[in-house]
Design a protein that fits this description.
The protein has 273 residues and is α+β, with helices and mostly antiparallel strands. It has one domain: Aminohydrolase, N-terminal nucleophile (Ntn) domain (Glutamine Phosphoribosylpyrophosphate, subunit 1, domain 1, 4-Layer Sandwich). Helices cover 26% and strands 25% of the residues. It has seven helices and twelve strands. The strands form two sheets. Strands 2-3-1-9-8-10 form a six-stranded antiparallel sheet. A six-stranded antiparallel sheet has the order 4-5-6-7-11-12, with helices on one face. Strand 2 and strand 3 form a beta hairpin. The radius of gyration is 19 Å and the shape is globular.
């Protein structure tokens, strides 16, 4: 679990960088191992990251990270479990000067090689991405298929603010809490706030299986659905027990990839053990 924070603003770089550091460090509990920041000079786009080191514990795994070609900057929370397979596929297309062994570097290389949509189709995992296209000056916020990893964005005093949690957004010095009655009602009725709503006006969740693009800090977001669950009910016989077990074993195998010791917590319920 890591933390992502960022800002797109017309404020001076020094002021904006200080705001992003404050937002970023509000996420320290999500990423206690390292803290990083990056900005695009003269553009007002700032990225911050708090890291929980799981893969590639070296400095080469630090974020925010630039792609090898220099086009993209990425702050990323989560894990793409099949990154080794994707890395092999990239190597088959031509030799690459990999800097380290992190999945972050593989994600950037995949996006640079195939574009965002084709890369997302290959990713198997849970993730929230803040991706900056330096050539097009475009910010894209991406959430995994099921929305396992959180990602929100907000308008605060003319700034576009985004982060893993609303708590980080609240650290913007001009933020004013303004509850959204519709979202509060939804929470009281359903015990959760459905996306894209948050409990606040002018703050939204990125929906699961979608990405949201901004061409400038003041543009309306463009939402693209890159994945939807297929309608499976009545589409054919259920998978055989052997096939289901193979899928579960493969899912567990992928999630066991780590450069630090692993543990498992089982509640004893039918859904976990």
């Amino acid at each position: 679990m890591c933390g992502v924070a960022g800002l797109w603003t017309e404020r001076g770089d020094a002021e904006a960088a200080a705001i992003v550091r404050t937002m970023r460090d509000a996420l320290a509990s999500r990423g206690p191992d390292d803290a990083g920041a990056w900005f695009e000079p003269g553009c007002g786009l700032h990225l911050g990251h708090r890291r929980l080191s799981i893969l590639d514990l070296s400095p080469e795994g630090r974020q925010p990270m630039l792609s090898l070609g220099g086009r993209y900057a990425l702050a990323y929370n989560g894990e793409v479990y099949n990154y080794r397979q994707i890395r092999r596929e990239l190597d088959e297309r031509g030799p690459r000067a990999w800097r380290g062994s992190s999945d972050t570097e593989v994600l950037l290389a995949a996006i640079e090689e195939w574009g965002l949509d084709d890369a997302l189709r290959r990713f198997v995992g849970m993730f929230a991405l803040a991706l900056w296209d330096r050539r097009e000056e475009r910010l894209t916020l991406v959430r995994d298929r099921l929305g396992i990893k959180p990602l929100v964005f907000a308008r605060v005093a003319g700034d576009l603010v985004f982060a893993s949690t609303l708590a980080a957004v609240h650290r913007h010095p001009r933020h004013v809490l303004d509850l959204d009655p519709e979202a509060v009602e939804a929470y009281l009725r359903f015990n959760y706030v459905p996306a894209p709503l948050t409990v606040e006006h002018d703050a939204w969740k990125v929906r699961p299986g979608t990405y949201v693009e901004f061409d400038s800090r003041n543009t309306e977001p463009r939402e693209t659905v890159y994945w939807e669950p297929r309608r499976l009910l009545g589409s054919g016989p259920p998978p055989a027990d052997g096939e289901l077990e193979a899928l579960l074993r493969d899912a567990v195998r992928l999630r066991m990839i780590s450069d630090v010791p692993l543990g498992a917590l089982l509640s004893g319920g039918i859904d976990s053990s």
